[in-house]
Amino acid sequence: MSNNTDDFMAMKGAGYYSRATIGAKHVMDNATGLILNALDRLPPKDDGSVFLMTDMGCADGGTSIDMVKRILREIRERCPTRPIQMTYTDLPKTDFSQLFQIVHGLTPTETYMDDIADLYVSASATSFHKRIVPPGTLDLGHSATASHYITEVPAKIENHVHMVRASGAVRQAYEDKGAADWVNFLLMRASELRKGGVLALFNFGIDEDGRWLGHTGGVTMFDEFNRHWHAMSIEGKISPAEYRATNFPQVYRTVEQFTAPFTEETSAVRRAGLTLEHVETRVVRCPFAAAWKNGEYSSAAEFAQSYIPTLRSWSEPVFANALSKSRSADERAELVDEFYGRYEKAVATSPEGHAMDYVHCYLICRKE
Ligand SMILES: C[S@@+](CC[C@H](N)C(=O)[O-])C[C@H]1O[C@@H](n2cnc3c(N)ncnc32)[C@H](O)[C@@H]1O
Known about the structure:
Layout: H1 5-8, H2 16-20, H3 22-41, E1 51-56, H4 65-78, E2 84-89, H5 96-103, E3 119-124, E4 138-144, H6 168-192, E5 193-206, H7 221-234, H8 240-244, E6 253-254, H9 255-263, H10 268-271, E7 274-284, H11 287-293, H12 300-322, H13 329-349, E8 358-367
Parallel strand pairs: 1-2, 1-4, 2-3, 4-5, 5-6
Antiparallel strand pairs: 5-8, 7-8
S-adenosylmethionine is lined by residues 5, 9-11, 21, 24, 56-59, 63-64, 89-91, 94, 127-129, 144-146, 149, 314.
């Protein structure tokens, strides 16, 4: 088992991610105005230089495609003489082929490739914990639903799989790691950005009412993950060591934790010239739970069947990676299937309260 997030993390490939994760698309579509407003406040100059935009932690690029289209159209209109470079970034195990198929129009997803003149699309597999593009070249850095991935898990959570339920020294270790990785992430972007450039980050986090992804009043999703995985360890399907090795390499930060590098007097992020223009939290409702409430499924089983993939599309590598490599690949795949099958059965049996509502903290920053 690797402790380094870069070594195993990837959203489910072959288009599964963006097909199943329509809620993440809603997050970006609903918040595109925050970026357009930032471009309005300080319009980019039409000076003939390359306009560079990044989408960091893009997965297969399907969820951001409409947001990117709206922004690039706006740039094309405002800056007719500037070639546009659109750079998608994620980790090396990402299905980049799927990304290129989506962006180049080889899938049913509508793309923007033929709409925008003088556009150059490329991808990078460099972690966002490092500098991805050369210093002083970035006009618009964007990342949605990705900055919660930390470089590695700092401690084992004995009785749970996610830091939202950790306490004491273990919780502190996650928060410290989250703070250090966050400052580093911002410093990397401060270095990449040109003067006047924008950084738009739509981050998973903990809002002012203590809500987080899948914890907005009903069944808590991470508790459900833990319940089924723990049951499999009690029944001997997975070993206690495998259960204990299962910790999401993620930190959900509070609004105070997100904004601290911008408000603290001595902060390296402030010294690097990065300022905060806008911060807000929002909850975007789970589209599958909403459809269930609206009576759009014929049965609870049908709801469960369409709901579980939206959890599986991003969480699967964490469970799969915790299983011993002495097991065969088939055995590991069967255990992971059984785990999600148990979750699906629980939803089908008692569907009320299951919802993966998205809780984000939106930040718009500027390089002064
Ligand atoms: C939940 S997905 C979000 C995808 C897309 N941005 C969206 O909002 O639908 C998180 C993405 O972040 C990527 N990721 C995690 N750690 C990363 C890192 N250090 N550098 C780049 N991407 C990373 C994951 O591989 C994954 O594709």
